[in-house]
Amino acid sequence: MMEPVSTNRHAEEQFLEILGNQAKGDPKRLDRARTHGFVVVVRGTTSLKSLQDLCYDESRQTWNRGKCMTARYRLRGKHCLGTLIMAFLRDVGTFLEARDRSSGTLDPEFFSSLPGDIRPPFTDSLWEPMLRLLYDELKSFPESEQGEVDVLYALSKICGAPLRPLEESEASLKAQMAQKSAALPEASSLSVEEPPFPPRAHRLVLMGEIAEGEVEPEEWEQARRSLFPLLPERIGLVLAGLPEELEVDTGDPHYLEITLEEPEPTPEVKQQFTVGGLFSDQPTREDSLGFGRYAVGMARFLLHPDTHPPLTIGIQGPWGKGKSSFMEMLEMALIKYTRVNRDERRVTLEDLQVKRADLRFRIGVAPPEERPALRTQLERVEQQIQELWQKMRADSLREVICVRFNAWQFQDARQTWAGLAHVIGEALEEALPYWRRKLIGLYYAWKKRRRELSLTLGMPFLAALIIALITVGINPALLEKLARWSAANESELPDSLALLKLVLPSGAGFLGVGYLLSRLFNIFHPISQQMLRYPRRAEYREQMGFQHQVMEDLRFLYHTFPQKPHRPRVVVFIDDLDRCSEDKVMEILQAINLILARSEFFVFLGMDTKMIHRAIYLHYSKNGEVPLEEGFQENYLRKIVQLSFHLPPIPEEKRFGLVRRLFSPR
Predict the structure, then answer these.
(1) Which are the contacts of 409, defined by CB distance < 8 A and separation ≥ 6?
(2) Are residues 564 and 458 in the same domain?
(3) Does the model's pTM come out above 0.85?
(4) Are both 499 and 574 inside the same structural domain?
């Protein structure tokens, strides 16, 4: 490895030489000419401001004068190389969105809010050929092919660079790239004669100042084999703060290692960029994936007077596709499009949500002194949204009752059956008016458990009556006998016996009434609680009467709602089925088929079809020992799920926006 240059002046001249690819115009130095992009490693400092300034020094920059575009970032954490590229792409997307929202006019303060130091600003005509190209190319990839490889392909395609073959050790990466053959032309067909961007003599340089971060040797070696050779000729990376043990092949004209002296401290505000916090696996109610319009369409379909239950709809998609989030949005749409909410309230809510989004954007681009006032406005709008939404949800119960059941939370097969019935029953009870909810237990016992009610109340009442008669008829005679005995012995009746004479009849009566009330209290238990006790009974463990009883109980609960003007629609969302074991999957399917399919409910089943087919196969083939007919799994599932909705591909702009949200400025 050659000794790095030690003087700033000499080092800067070498940087300008590799930047301009000056050897390409010198017949004597064609062996030092670059055929693809360049990488500069800077030692001695983590500040690249001087090199960024040098790109615009007209007295020294003669090859690419006025034609350089640079973006400088402060990086921290691991995987800094990928973060550098994605940080730049995030700023591109942020600018394009802001420009679209503001009809092309942006406050100059906007650019100071970007994490990167972008020169010249994105509004300069130098950037225009590249901005839309890069944005469109990135969002055109299939959503299943996300990742850094997409970035490399996009950069290569829009810049016209050939895709160079990778090392054999990068077989896995090659396999990913091979899968894109339908989306991109073959490497040999890509032309480098006149790349669309950057134009001739223009340069795009991404600069990464690695502070409080690291680049692992494996990451560096992979980048040397896979990333750096893919950089187009007019694009370069400049990195400062790399570990000393990472070697640079300075014999290769595409690499340069220089040493710069640490600059004098300046009041410059350094921008930092880091990978954002991990997103939770919990479903979201924000339409970050572009599923909102499908949720609205499905909700209006369910609320239409001509749509009648029972109906089971499968929400199909692989694990992590967004099934839970879609069902959250569907529940919100059902509430918003009920008759009581769909006009004035829905419009008001959507106006408030637009106002909230606008305030969030303004806070991000506003000067620091204006942000407290904007945050106060945002808090006020958030409170208005919350209050309005609570009222909309409460009033919507007259028209639609949404039930969420998470199958994964129940641990064994019997509990799953009872749990499903309990969750649905509890939701129905909570939607009833207060006094009807309190009295429904007694009404249920009279209508459905009259024999049990007779035993519960009749026998204790008869026993209490007998005790009272005995107390009234026998005890007074006993006390009178005690009184005569006391008189014969010339002594008065003790006070305790006198008290006993008064208390014994009434005490027996109170005891009987108390026991009667305790038995009556058991009848007032919610029906949903009784459903949880069904599997514990021996008769339900030994026979299949449980399904019939649950179906009858749910039907009874539903018919306690007033029929006029109409009963509410009940929508059951069964989620996280693809997280369950095969046995639990089959039990849920059987519950839907035997219980819910005969009810008056709508059922949404979130599922990964491949996993459901596997559970059906293992159950009916007895772990593969019994052969099944071809298509058995599909036919079985088709009998349970009447309508399937396959989650669509994520819209391009939503996918790109989601990737940008993974990174946040510091």
Answers:
(1) 419
(2) no
(3) no
(4) no
